[in-house]
Amino acid sequence: MQPLSTRTHIALLAAVVAAAILPALVPDYYVQFAAKVLILGTLAMALNLAVGFGGLVSLCHAAFFGLAGYALVLAAPEYDEPSLLLTLPLAVGATVLVALVVGVLSLRTRGVYFIMVTLAFGEMLFFLFHDTPIGGGSDGLFLYVKPVLAFGETILLDLGNPVTFYLVSLAAAAGTWWLIRHLLSTPFGDALTAARDNERRALALGIPVFRVRLIAFVLSAALAGLAGYLSAAQFGFVAPQMLGWHLSATALVMVVLGGTRRVAGPLAGALVVTGLEEVLKYFIDDWKLVYGLIVIALVLLAPGGLQDVARLTGLGRRAGTPALKLKEANNVG
Amino acid sequence: MDIGTFAIQLLNAVQYGLVLFLVASGLTLVFGILGVINLAHGVFYMLGAYLAWWLTVATGNFAVGILGAFAISFVVGLALESVFIRRLYGRDHLSQVLLSFGLILVVDELRQMLFGRDVQSVPLPEWLSGSLPLTDVLNYPVYRLVVSLLCLAVAVAIFMVIRRTRIGMVVRAGAENREMTRALGIPFDSVNRYVFAVGIALAALAGAVIAPISTVFPGMGDGMLILSFVVVVLGGIGSVPGAAIGALLIGLIDTFGKVFMPELAGILVYVLMAVVLVVRPTGILGKREV
Hints:
Chain B: It is found in: Cell membrane. Chain B: The chain crosses the membrane at residues 142-162, 194-213, 225-252, 264-285. The complex is a heterodimer. Chain A has a domain at 26-244. Helix content of chain A is 71%, strand content 4%. Chain A is built from 14 helices and four strands. In chain A, the strands form two sheets. Chain A has a two-stranded antiparallel ribbon with strand order 1-4. A two-stranded antiparallel sheet of chain A has the order 2-3. Chain B is mostly helical. Helices cover 72% and strands 2% of the residues of chain B. Chain B is built from eleven helices and two strands. In chain B, strands 1-2 form a two-stranded antiparallel ribbon. Chain B is globular and about 65 Å long. Chain B starts with a helix and ends in an 11-residue tail after the last helix. The A-B interface holds A 51, 57, 59, 105-106, 108-113, 115-117, 119-121, 123-124, 127-128, 131-132, 246, 249, 252-253, 256, 260, 286, 288-289, 291-296, 298-300, 303, 332-333 and B 31, 37, 39, 84, 87, 91-95, 97-99, 101-106, 108-110, 112-113, 226, 229-230, 232-233, 237, 263, 266-267, 270, 273-274, 277-278, 281-282, 290.
């Protein structure tokens, strides 16, 4: 990761400020939609830490996402506000524990085995909540009162308030972005990407590949858990579908669309995918047919994601210098 | 458990394992030979069941339903290979995962447009709906035996084709070393499309034969897809004998798990997978290096 230029810093600051004052400018529906995009963007950025930077194509991140959501709902008192300070560490902690076990087992495998094994463990968690009574079975569970952050009697943050919730989601997405970026600028980040590019060479250099990957996998699961916690708090409802691999695959679509080598890319991917879904659902009954075809077209025509889409449509011709193209071509592999 | 009940459970376990083998062998062949991970495999199991239902109800003939489901899926497989899957050879796994995810969405939605989303059942013809007396009080349905025998016949046919024919030789060479096979001028790429189509058709056949026993419903492919992946991980990717061992193991564990500890039966399969991963990460019959 190269350090950001001053200009980028200013642009970033402007983007965050603009995002922060968004609730004052648009109707409630869009604030909720924006919060949903930020949450899914957090999930996708977290997933990309494993996929793009660790080279670990995981199909069980939705299970971590859903697990944290279930943890919030199961830990919440039925008719009282759950405490944010209590339930959030609990939910993320539970995710970390499960991710450790799944990670230790599945990181023994490589490539396509890793995909299959993570898929299988993810579905195991799905069936655990779908078939047994611990999580209300296939009907799911309701969260009647949203979490609050309170000191004594003073309520500092109430996630039941849509604007507060939106700002918390914004902070979560920004924090995730910052954390992953920072991580990649450390020697740990170099070790992770080195192991992705050439495992044998990394091992020969003395990098403890297994441990580095495990840490990255667990951290990425924890951030996915943070997103899942917020998602459960937003909708006040959890169902087994939240853990299912279709959501993992959707998050992968966001990752690829945004570009696997950019930390914030998946956030852009989340915006496009969520927006597209919303528009397609509104206009077309059989929207999944169109959505599926778009995903196929993405893989075949624009494997580099939005960058390729921009180039194909002629919007990003400026960016298409030979050096950049070469870099992107390498990135795709 | 008395010996009669045990025999029935054992027959059920073997029948389940054999059906699972039909699905998983296609998956493992497509990966081993084409190098493509196909998440859309399970959706064709579901499609096979719906095709069998639709054809059986339309023609009134169950055999037409089964054979038709197999034949239609084979043709669909050929078409899909030349339009989509061909472009995935040599691409990274991430692209393969995403493209097959897109295929799932498309096939699932087409199924909904053609056959609806209702749960259906396939009626058995009279000559298959009887049961055989096993002991004085216990009977075993004829159809389940027929399913086992049919799957066994298909499994033997797969083994014979791979071991004893010229095409099988090409397939084995390709699974062993793709680049070398190509470099030696062996017509390996023209075999690819048939491997993919047969894989899809086997999944559909499994769905079709299972349709009269279970019900036909939209999500039936998902569970089967996951179990086939577990089978492939257990047996070793690309290994057909490995898939047979894995499938029978899962059949036994799942069936007897449901008898002895019903609450944990769903988890047992994954525990088995975890154990194999610890002991032999590349599967029971897999190559050491992946």
